[in-house]
Amino acid sequence: MITTRLATLADLDAVAALFDAYRQFYEQPADLALARRFIEARLQRDESVVIVACNADQAIVGICQLYPTFCSVEAKPVYVLYDLYVDASVRRSGAGSALLRAAEQLADG
Predict the structure, then answer these.
(1) Exposed, middle or buried: residue 47 (CB in 10 Å: 0-12, 13-18, 19+)?
(2) Taking the complete model, does pTM exceed 0.85, yes or no?
(3) Of all residues in the chain, what percent are helix, strand and coil, respectively (each to 5)?
(4) Which 3-state string (H, E, C) describes 14-47?
């Protein structure tokens, strides 16, 4: 069973590890310290929203990072989905779909 929720700073280590793996997927060198600093800064400054996917044991197995911005045409706030990553060991578990649904719900407000 996969559940989703908003990440908090208490989730920083788990989110940073997945963010580092995400960056490696896109052929960036492993750098957990960089990943941790980046995610920590985004969360502390409210510059992004990170949704986490958790397995039945409540371990974080996926992340989705969205950046808030605005739509001038609709004259309202919107979110840009920029990062989505699910640990390779749980792919095809529905975690990615759950993250996308949670992102859509957040965006619809």
Answers:
(1) exposed
(2) yes
(3) 45, 30, 25
(4) HHHHHHHHHHHHCCCCCCHHHHHHHHHHHHHCCC
Report yes or no: 63 and 53 within 8 Å, Cβ to Cβ.
yes
Contacts of 70 (CB under 8 A, 6+ apart): 76, 77, 78
With contact defined as beta carbons under 8 Å apart, do 80 and 67 qualify? yes
Nearest-angstrom CA–CA distance, 81 and 40? 18
Residues 2-56 have pLDDT tens digits of: 999 999 999 999 999 999 999 999 999 999 999 999 999 999 999 999 999 999 9
Query: Cα–Cα distances in Å, from 25 out to 19, 29, 79?
Result: 10, 9, 23
In the chain, count H helices and then E strands: 3, 4
